[in-house]
Write a structure and sequence with these properties.
The complex is a heterotrimer of chains A (114), B (562) and C (313). With 114 residues, chain A is mainly alpha-helical. Chain A has four helices and no strands. Chains A and C meet through helix 1, helix 2, helix 3 and helix 4 of A and helix 1, helix 3, helix 10 and helix 11 of C.
Chain lengths: 114, 562, 313
């Protein structure tokens, strides 16, 4: 019927791209990622550089988040605006973190500090 | 051709069904999904809050007539200026143009039947009422005295007033703002009429898009800040308490992360209105359309990078101060670009000094002063002298009142015939515009001087030698007050027996002028297909300058008759 | 546009199920709803972002206090919760999958499963919070069983003494919000100083090494010696951040369960099909967002300092 024509293309995308086996695969990746995070946290990586543990934990968390966003939230097949919104929000978070920390990290330093 | 017919200022002979006549019951208003009705309800609400904030302002200026703290004692004075700030900023300035003019006009300007999410629009109105109701209830119980900035540790530990209740009201109100912004972004992306490309949009729409970005990205941060404040106050935690390792500056960082972009929410819509007014009342295509459009987005983005300029003397690190100061200079650039473009639009335009245009020209001068003084405050050396003095007060009133409020009034007058189908008295409109301009300058210019010679803000008493300037300021405030109350009277009167305005009383090419005044509920009888550029004035469009001049002559003789 | 005679003759085409009047067609509605939901999620990201900023600030100031506090959280429950949420994300994604296929029974089953796992999550959080209540590590005065029942030990915090202000204000608390001054130290109970004492000793042995941050060197010490009360204050800040972040997250979870109840009911009534399934997709976006927040909360709150326990330096 004609009225279905305009939106068929939209959800057929997801019909074809994400199937149950693929959902289970992503789930498996997330599951393993959690276990890895836990085990790595127990081993001391500070000898590489201070803060290595945190960096690895965050990297794994970012990877898991990306999997959820791209495949569970279908961002991979979403219009560009949705992709841009997702990236932009992290950019804004980064602004908030960076500009706040630039105050805390430079207090009492340099020419003007004690 | 559609353009030809639409330009004529046709007076409709027989009353047609429009959004105001489509249902007369209270229920049809309170449960409406029509963006125009929601806009009118917002109009009434924000006007009420404006009047309340104005009463507090009157109390402040009356107290400051004399050097001693005689009319109000200090504790009460603290409450008065705090409540003036809260009502004006959160309940008037932030919603004013977006919720009233934006809600009404954006669907009309893009050729849509309604906003994308009308029920969300209605929800945002309800949330506004609930937030406002909570704050009003708190004010009646005794109010709050922390300053609208709620700095810790006073607000968290020492203040004995209704901080949490007012905080809750502002928290709730923030969601009204977020939902409006969300709705505008979706609408502008998905509801444009065929042929209405991004670069054919009126600059009013671009300005609201930029404002909506700020609303969505910034408002949640004030929400979380208020939540932390309330929890700290209720639970005695100490996250902002240096005695146990907390940091009051963290509160300021989180607070100003929103509140600085908030001031861009409080100017960008005004700039959008001014773009419309300047272009349309010069009957000339706006100069540098893309520059103005992109500078709106640039202001929205850069506005998030400068919040530390409110904290130069509060204890943040000097290096952070340098970075914020530099970025403050940078963020002034897009605003300056707009000013140049507006001025260039006026050049060789066919200017008619109707009431809205008087407001627009007033904006140009007042925003210029406000913006420049902002740069003075952004320079780290000078700011040490000027922080927390009346210089700051004068600066932000120039940009917020001289900017947004003047633009809001200009917009209300400009689109009044479209919203109500009636014309107001041009004579009284002009008088009130001039009173506002004169009164405003008399009120706030002396405050620059007062600030420079050292009068601190938020003080109920001051040294004797500053009294003369304070008297000028209060005198100006009375003139300003008269000028601001007058529109209530003559606009109200126009509803009763104003001259019926035609569909296009100003004879302009905008899409909103190509439908009835007042518009029908579904906005257009036939959904438009856009084939023309924005602000397309020209003989070939059927826009008859002679007819426009004839109308001007008629208006001039009307003026003399009155 | 097809020109059927539908219920709304004025537009000349029948409306697809669920099409709202302001939209021309379903595609426009889907696009609008999707952008709208993502804008809402952007807003939610910034909402949690404020708390992450507070976390970032305090962790960079007092890393040892945070590590010590974190080690006393039970990573088993935290990890279990993470896995539970990931499973619920899977069931949610599959709900959307079956909604598109119009399979009512699978939708309802999967929604119920999602709700089940959500409830398990909240149950585990309740276990954790009760544990804190029992051990006196809730940073709010009056919300600790240990102190309430008078079992506070001799390590209970000394109150902060102010020379001006709060006591006087508390005394004249007439009007206002019943605001008696609350001592910010509260009755937080804490006994584990092993790790910090070890680190302090290391720092003293080598004053130039980067063991403690500048803020820690100022913040944990009185008269050159480790002050247990001051250290405990910083651990208390960690617990406060823990409660606010996980509490806000749990609140979002509760809202999510409410959303699922509504969705389940609508799915039961066979509302969703290939033509109209956006509400399911949008609810799914919300649920996945709540999952993502936890994916970050887990390592940042629970796994901070485990490498110290595991025999690291």
């Amino acid at each position: 019927m004609a009225e279905h024509g305009t939106h068929d293309m939209h959800e057929q995308h997801e019909h074809e791209h994400m199937t149950i086996p693929k959902y289970l695969l992503i789930f498996g990746i997330l599951f393993i990622g959690t276990i890895v995070t836990y085990l790595v946290a127990l081993t001391d990586l500070e000898w590489i550089f201070p803060g290595a543990n945190t960096l690895v934990a965050l990297a794994i968390a970012f990877f898991k988040m990306t999997c959820v966003m791209l495949f569970f939230m279908h961002v991979y097949w979403s219009p560009k605006l949705v992709k841009l919104s997702a990236i932009a929000s992290f950019f804004w978070l980064a602004i908030m973190f960076a500009y706040t920390m630039q105050d805390y990290l430079t207090r009492g330093t340099g020419v003007f500090g004690q | 051709m559609q353009t030809q017919e639409a330009i004529r200022p046709s007076i409709t002979d027989k009353p047609r069904q429009n959004y105001l006549t489509n249902g007369y019951t209270i229920k049809s208003w309170l449960l409406t999904k029509d963006h125009k009705r929601i806009a009118i309800m917002y109009l009434i609400s924000v006007s009420a809050f404006f009047m309340m904030g104005g009463l507090y302002a009157a109390a402040i200026r009356l107290e400051l007539l004399t050097p001693a703290s005689d009319l109000l004692e200090s504790g009460t004075y603290n409450k008065v200026f705090t409540q003036h700030g809260i009502l004006m900023i959160f309940f008037f300035l932030i919603p004013s143009i977006p919720a009233v003019l934006g809600n009404f006009l954006i669907p009309l300007m893009i050729g849509a039947k309604d906003l994308a999410l009308p029920r969300i629009n209605l929800l945002s109105l309800y949330i506004y009422w609930i937030g406002g109701g909570l704050v009003l209830f708190a004010l009646m119980q005794g109010g709050v005295d922390t300053g609208w900035t709620f700095y810790a540790p006073y607000s968290t530990t020492f203040s004995n007033t209704y901080v949490m209740l007012v905080g809750l009201g502002i928290f709730v109100n923030g969601f009204s703002s977020i939902l409006t912004g969300l709705n505008f972004i979706v609408t502008i992306h998905t509801m444009r009429a065929p042929g209405m490309t991004w670069f054919r949009l009126p600059l009013f729409v671009w300005a609201h898009y930029a404002t909506s970005l700020v609303m969505i990205l910034g408002t949640p941060v004030i929400a979380i800040t208020i939540l932390l404040l309330a929890l700290e106050r209720a639970g005695g935690i100490g996250i902002f308490d240096p005695a146990i390792g907390g940091d009051p500056i963290l509160f300021q960082h989180l607070f100003w992360f929103y509140s600085h972009p908030a001031v861009y929410i409080m100017i960008l819509p005004g700039m959008g209105v001014i773009s419309e007014l300047i272009s349309n009342f010069s009957r000339k295509k706006i100069f540098g359309y893309e520059f103005i459009a992109f500078s709106s987005i640039a202001i929205a983005v850069f506005g998030f990078l400068v919040w530390g300029h409110h904290m130069f003397v509060s204890g943040q690190s000097m290096y952070a101060g340098l970075v914020f100061s530099f970025l403050t200079m940078v963020v002034a650039v897009p605003s300056a670009i707009k000013m140049f473009n507006w001025a260039a639009t006026l050049y060789k335009g066919s200017i008619s000094f109707d009431t809205p245009m008087l407001y627009a020209i007033g904006f140009l001068g007042l925003f210029l002063i406000g913006g420049l003084t902002g740069l003075f405050l952004g320079a780290m050396g000078l700011t040490v002298h000027l922080t927390d003095t009346y210089f700051v007060v004068a600066h932000f009133h120039y940009v917020m009142v001289g900017g947004q409020v003047i633009a809001y009034l200009g917009g209300i007058h400009y689109w009044w015939p479209k919203m109500t189908g009636k014309m107001y008295s041009e004579f009284w409109g002009k008088i009130s515009a001039m009173l506002v301009f004169i009164g405003f300058n008399l009120t706030f210019f002396p405050q620059f001087i007062l600030g420079y010679i050292g009068m601190p803000r938020r003080y109920a008493s001051y040294p004797e030698e500053m009294q003369v300037l304070n008297i000028f300021s209060t005198a100006g405030a009375s003139v300003l007050g008269v000028g601001l109350v007058m529109p209530l009277i003559y606009l109200g009167k126009s509803l009763i027996n104003g001259k019926p305005a035609g569909d296009n009383p100003w004879m302009l090419p905008g899409l909103e002028w190509r439908t009835q005044s007042p518009p029908p509920t579904e906005n257009f009888d036939v959904m438009p297909v856009v084939t023309w550029e924005a602000y397309e004035f020209g003989e070939e469009n059927g826009l008859d300058l002679e007819a426009a001049r004839r109308r001007d002559r008629e208006m001039a003789s009307d003026f003399q008759k009155n | 546009m097809a020109t059927h005679v539908g219920e709304h003759n004025d537009h000349g085409h029948a409306h697809a199920p669920g099409l709202q009047h302001q939209f021309e067609d379903m595609k426009q509605q889907e696009e609008s709803v999707s952008i709208g939901m993502w804008m809402f999620l952007v807003q939610e990201i910034m909402f949690f972002g404020g708390l992450f900023t507070a976390y970032l600030v305090f962790r960079s100031k007092y890393p040892m206090a945070f590590a010590v506090g974190s080690n006393h959280l039970d990573a088993f429950w935290g990890g279990l919760n993470t896995l539970v949420l990931i499973v619920s994300s899977l069931t949610m994604a599959l709900t959307v999958y079956y909604a598109q296929k119009g399979n009512r029974n699978m939708q309802v089953i999967l929604i119920l499963l999602t709700m089940f796992f959500g409830a398990v999550f909240l149950g585990v959080k309740a276990i954790e919070y009760t544990d804190k209540w029992n051990h006196g590590t809730v940073p709010i005065t009056g919300l600790n069983k240990v102190v309430r029942e008078g079992h506070g030990d001799s390590h209970a915090s000394k109150p902060i003494e102010f020379s001006i202000g709060p006591k006087a204000y508390a005394a004249e608390a007439a009007g206002g919000e019943e605001h008696a001054y609350v001592n910010p130290r509260g009755e937080f109970q804490w006994n584990d100083y092993d790790l910090i004492e070890k680190k302090v000793a290391e720092q003293k042995a080598d004053p130039n090494a980067y063991i403690l941050t500048t803020d820690e060197k100022n913040g944990y010490f009185s008269y050159g010696e480790l002050d247990r009360d001051k250290f405990r204050d910083k651990v208390r800040i960690f617990y406060w951040i823990y409660f606010v972040m996980t509490g806000l997250h749990a609140l979002h979870m509760v809202v999510g369960l409410g959303l699922m109840t509504w969705l389940g009911w609508m799915a039961f009534r066979n509302t969703y099909s290939a033509e109209y399934y956006m509400p399911v997709e949008m609810s799914g976006l919300y649920w996945h967002f709540v999952d993502i927040v936890w994916i970050f909360l887990f390592p940042l709150l629970y796994l901070l300092g485990r490498h110290f326990i595991a025999g690291g330096h």
